[in-house]
Design goal:
heterodimer, A: alpha/beta, Rossmann fold, 6 helices, B: 4 domains, six-stranded mixed beta sheet, 37% helix, UCP030820 (chain A), Oxidoreductase (chain A), oxidoreductase (chain B)
Chain lengths: 167, 550
């Protein structure tokens, strides 16, 4: 079982499987274990999937989280894919899911997840991270906490530094 | 000037530790080069043609004397004893060793300096008018807003991996724009509405480089408290929808053009509606707190030294010329704003030695409350000089090479480092600047020609702002040979415009002649007090083309 990093730096085993988007003409093949499926396919099969705690969804970096609207909290896990670590769209997707749609369950970063991006991900609302396997998972806790505070409000702190300074 | 508190100091220290860790992992190979690349760029560290290059941030161009002295020491201890003022009000070192950079950052942090986000696909150093706070025609001092933007953009977790670099500039004067805001990704003009409330007119999608554009206005009035939430909305729209498939189409200007300014503005407004009342909305207290750092220095109560200066001018013609060209009026009676031009022929524009940095620090201490500003024309400003000490200041700077009285003239060239230093360049730019400076070495003639912006870039990336030069020079590569293309009619001021290409490019040795012919046409055609730009706009490009290619 692969390991995932939690926002407190702990490392835990995990059994969620990321199901790739089926090719044109093929149907979704869901394994017999907790699975993350493309968000639009979950929505398309909404009647079928609703109420299941072993089905979550994932967004690619160009997907629009708006499609789920108020349904986000029906999902136990939402993952956001970073196809390339330098593709920063996933940070905005995370903040929208958390701050606009009020997603309260597990938000996971998957794909090209590297150590030096972890703290940005944490601040934007991700709480688990599937680190790229060739990276040293034992350094994650430190990389999650390079900075003890940030100037901006984000998902981790709703009070920007200028407001904290004033109080 | 802004002074760090415990929070800023802590963040700066953590940043140094983080970059030290990242550098160590890069040196051991644990971080692949492509993984280290954006990390080091976000710390201003390039790997260049001859050596690494480190770009140090100078927020809105301001520095204290102690910071200049530290820079001087760093150039001696870690580099070859000189530095370079850039067109983005930053300072570059050309030869630091990669493994020394964490130590350099630690040294900088001791004097409240850093290299954060001076490169990379993130929000860069916010720039502004170098005369801010010292002139009488500004709506409000723009520097506190620049500092507010600096803090908000520093390590912004959502916007560290944008499609491309992102530059914000703020201007406050009604009459002029020394910050070139209309050729920035976001240009903010301080304005007041009918009720007198302070806010910003927001330009988005200007920029130079491959597809130069003047940024359209997407909001006529943004109340000052909404500054950060609105910026956040613009950046979020850009981060999500800016093109990432093609580096050359990734700037926000391409998105604004594709959506039309109205379409883009609608998207921003829709996004902003969700976040405008979030905790990121500024408070009057937060603005006042930052404003308190930019209060006036301890000015003496003086009268204008009109008679004294008239006498000194009469006795010394060179001083008279310097006063006319390099000294501006000040909002306070008895004071003046002085620009030291770093444009002595034979010295690459913007280059300073360690000793010169120390000289500037001494000048700041002696004549201008210990502070200076760097300009995007690569000059240095002493913003608060007593009029009755101008002669003494001038006598001090002439021997050290800062007294060249050519501000805003043809030889006050903006010039990128070009092919001598920069790995991106297609052609050298410094020798072209020098050849033109040598050709036009008669100050009387230059003064007669009036204000002319000559801007030179060694490649399409346009660090030398050639598109907005009244005369722009662009280095191009043709089958391994260096040529230079000319454009005319650019401007970076309130009447911003992109220059028009004159025609086929020229060999380097022809450049002084070509510029001389262009100037001849202007001299022939101008009427009365017309500037070069006025004449060009009146007569068009054809007469210039006819003469140059005759």
């Amino acid at each position: 079982m692969p390991n995932v990093i939690y926002r407190d730096g702990s490392i835990r085993q995990d059994n969620w499987i990321l199901v790739a988007r089926p090719a044109e003409g093929e149907s979704l093949d869901i394994p017999h274990q907790p699975a993350l499926i493309p968000a639009d396919l979950w929505l398309a099969g909404y009647e079928h999937f609703t109420g299941r705690d072993d089905i979550g969804v994932w967004f690619d970096s160009h997907d629009e989280p708006e499609i789920l609207g108020g349904k986000v909290n029906e999902l136990p896990v939402i993952a956001v894919n970073f196809p390339k670590f330098s593709d920063g769209r996933g940070y905005s997707i995370a903040r929208l899911l958390r701050e606009r749609f009020g997603f309260a369950n597990e938000l996971r970063a998957v794909g090209d997840v590297l150590l030096d991006q972890l703290q940005f991900m944490k601040r934007c609302g991700f709480d688990t991270y599937a680190l790229r396997p060739d990276k040293d998972i034992n350094k994650a806790a430190r990389c999650l906490n390079f900075f003890s505070q940030g100037y901006q409000a984000a998902t981790d702190t709703h009070v920007p530094l200028f407001r904290r300074r004033a109080s | 000037m802004y002074v760090y508190d415990d929070h800023d100091r802590q963040i700066a220290a953590e940043r140094v530790a983080q970059f030290r860790d990242q550098t160590e992992r890069a040196l051991t190979g644990e971080l692949a080069e492509e993984e280290f690349l954006p990390l080091r760029l976000q710390n201003g560290l390039y790997v260049q043609r001859l050596a690494p290059m480190l770009r140090i941030a100078v927020p809105y161009g301001m520095m204290r004397a102690e910071q200049l002295r530290r820079l001087a020491r760093i150039t001696r201890d870690y580099d070859k004893g000189y530095a370079h003022f850039t067109t983005r009000q930053n300072v570059q070192l050309n030869w630091p060793a990669l493994e020394d950079v964490p130590d350099i950052l630690a040294e900088l942090a001791e004097v409240e300096m850093h290299a954060n986000q001076t490169s990379g696909n993130c929000i860069r150093n916010t720039t502004t008018d170098q005369f801010s706070g010292a002139q009488s025609d500004e709506i409000a001092d723009p520097r506190p807003y620049c500092e507010i933007i600096r803090q908000w953009s520093t390590f912004h977790p959502e916007f560290a991996f944008l499609p491309r670099k992102f530059k914000v500039a703020v201007n406050a004067s009604e009459k002029t724009d020394r910050a070139a805001i209309q050729v920035h990704d976001i240009g903010l003009q301080l304005v007041r509405d009918e009720s007198g409330a302070l806010g910003f007119r927001v330009h988005v999608g200007g920029g130079l480089g491959r597809t130069p554009m003047v940024g359209p206005v997407i909001r006529e009035f943004l109340p000052e408290l909404d500054l950060l939430t609105y910026l956040e909305a613009v950046l979020r729209v850009y981060n999500r929808y800016g093109r990432r498939d093609n580096k050359f189409k990734a700037r926000i200007k391409i998105l604004v053009k594709a959506l039309t300014p109205e379409g883009f503005a609608e998207k921003v407004e829709a996004e902003w509606a969700h976040i405008k009342d979030s905790p990121t909305r500024l408070t009057p207290e937060a603005i006042q707190r930052i404003q308190a750092y930019f209060t006036e220095p301890d000015y003496a109560l003086l009268d204008n030294a009109t008679e004294l200066l008239a006498e000194q001018r009469f006795e010394n013609r060179a001083f008279d010329q310097w006063l006319t060209h390099n000294v501006d009026t000040h909002k306070k009676p008895g004071y003046a704003i002085v620009t030291l031009t770093m444009k002595k022929t034979g010295t690459p524009p913007g280059d300073v030695t360690d000793r010169q940095l120390e000289h500037i620090a001494d000048l700041a201490d002696e004549f201008s409350f210990g502070e200076i500003r760097v300009t995007h024309q690569q000059n240095v400003v002493l913003a608060d000089v007593r009029q009755d000490r101008l002669l003494e200041l001038w006598q001090t700077i002439v021997p050290i090479g800062f007294g060249t009285a050519n501000l805003n003239t043809l030889t006050d060239v903006i010039c990128c480092p070009g092919g001598d230093y920069c790995a991106l360049a297609n052609a050298k730019s410094i020798p072209v600047a020098e050849a033109i400076q040598r050709r036009f070495d008669n100050l009387d003639y230059l003064y007669d020609l009036g204000d002319i912006d000559l801007n030179i870039s060694g490649c399409m990336n346009a660090c030398g702002h050639h598109h907005v030069g009244n005369i722009g020079v662009l280095g191009v590569d043709k089958k391994g040979e260096e040529f230079y293309q000319i454009s005319l009619g650019g401007s970076s001021h309130h009447d911003a415009s992109i220059g028009k290409i004159l025609g086929p490019s020229f060999a380097r040795e022809d450049m002084p002649d070509v510029v001389a012919k262009i100037i001849d046409v202007y001299v022939d055609k101008r009427t009365g007090e017309e500037t070069f730009l006025d004449t060009y706009r009146r007569v068009g490009i054809v007469p210039f083309k006819e003469r140059v290619y005759a």
